[in-house]
Amino acid sequence: xxxxxxxxxxxxxxxxxxxxxxxxxxxxxxxxxxxxxxxxxxxxxxxxxxxxxxxxxxxxxxxxxxxxxxxxxxxxxxxxxxxxxxxxxxxxxxxxxxxxxxxxxxxxxxxxxxxxxxxxxxxxxxxxxxxxxxxxxxxxxxxxxxxxxxxxxxxxxxxxxxxxxxxxxxxxxxxxxxxxxxxxxxxxxxxxxxxxxxxxxxxxxxxxxxxxxxxxxxxxxxxxxxxxxxxxxxxxxxxxxxxxxxxxxxxxxxxxxxxxxxxxxxxxxxxxxxxxxxxxxxxxxxxxxxxxxxxxxxxxxxxxxxxxxxxxxxxxxxxxxxxxxxxxxxxxxxxxxxxxxxxxxxxxxxxxxxxxxxxxxxxxxxxxxxxxxx
Length: 374
Description:
Blueprint: H1 2-54, E1 65-69, H2 75-84, H3 91-100, E2 109-113, H4 119-128, E3 137-140, H5 147-158, H6 163-170, H7 173-182, E4 208-211, H8 218-233, H9 237-243, H10 247-260, H11 264-279, H12 287-294, H13 330-337, E5 346-349, E6 355-358, H14 361-371
Antiparallel strand pairs: 1-2, 3-4, 5-6
InterPro entries: MLTG-like (IPR003770)
Catalytic activity: a peptidoglycan chain = a peptidoglycan chain with N-acetyl-1,6-anhydromuramyl-[peptide] at the reducing end + a peptidoglycan chain with N-acetylglucosamine at the non-reducing end
Protein name: Endolytic murein transglycosylase
């Protein structure tokens, strides 16, 4: 009787364990089924989302949306602009689409785009530069101009504004403060340094700009140029951060190359010369800084000019000047961050504007005698 009870107890426990195993199996099965269904739903939703993002936002729409792509815009900013204006569903998906299809070289301009356009149609439109409306006129701002030269040679000649009106606007403190709040990553407190001549010197990007109204305001002209500067510097933000430098440093350095270089390759070599001089704690001794410091155009400098004491003179002061001395183009900006590798420390330009480089002072003197004379 006692043994039988033990056997019964044993079988009861076995039956309980079997029940527990069955319950556990059911729970595992249910959880697995739930996870499988969840993954399937997520995959299905993801597939639907991507498919939807690759399709026109509204296939039946006939609404023309005017989208302005600023000069120098990169893929990130263009994709964000298209999403913001309802032309595409998702900026990230569009970027993947463009990269997968190896598309590039989009054109700046004002486009008339429809939410019913396919991604391929949008891409081809941006590549070919087909714009919704033709500009009424364009204004070309050449590289290497100072604000004074922009005022006199471009604004006064190409618009109804006087040089004085332009200079009054670009030196207006309240307007500059407003611009600083609108362009916080570009216009920092550095532009208000004690020795800075003009806060916006070097910040108006040289390019040809389209205008779609007969009398664009000075604000529109200035801010379109600032947009272009910001777009051209944005791709280098990570590099600048790694170097511990700022856009102000970059534009200042680039302005020296713009004033000294006579060819694209020269910019990279001259950049290396300046880096070598900075590394050796030598003054940069670049003539355009003296001319800028003196505030008047000079075809040639004399010995006494190099003694002109001014914060912008790189003969009197070591390092870069307080700020840009002109508006630098894309080639000069790029050369600052991707200079040639040389041992050159000296260079001079001959009467035809060709630069000649030297490693030693003795070689430099030989170049002077050979290409310039006494």
